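seq as requested:
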Amino acid sequence: MTYRNLVLAVLLVFWLVGPGYGDSPGTGPKGATMMESTPLRMQPIGLVKQQGDRTYVEIEPQYAAALKGLEGFSHLWVVYWFHENDTPERRATLQVHPRRDPANPLTGVFACRAPERPNLIGLTAVRIVKLTGNVVEVSGLDARDGTPIVDLKPYIPKGDSIPEATTPEWVKRSKQPVD
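struct tokens:
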């Protein structure tokens, strides 16, 4: 999601909930804190399937129509749930050594891609190999067999690529990311 789209989404939420929401920082309707607000609800739309060295995103049949038009794209964002990390301890982890490398500085989970985090959402850009019915064969997905898929979004270079983006030195090192 581009920064512009994120801002528009936030403005839409404020417009929909009307005046009084967030009158003071960290509060929602009628003064409720953000943690007391209605919980979010998500349902998986499919699963990761691995067969040998091939990886597939298998979408539930009732969502197959949502794949229409995807054949025109070469790449895709896969949003998934780190289901194997869903424990209170792992959700409470706020700092890690990125890539599970103690040589990397202790870093907040919002500043790295560690699977331990308060909301266990993973995100990977993948290459679309083949689209057949409700199954998308992909290359480059770092999720495990059986991982629940939360959403798919097409990779759009104009909005998803930020050439002037900067990163800390540990990201630039050649070690392949583990998390």
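Confidence is low (pLDDT under 50) at residues 6-24.
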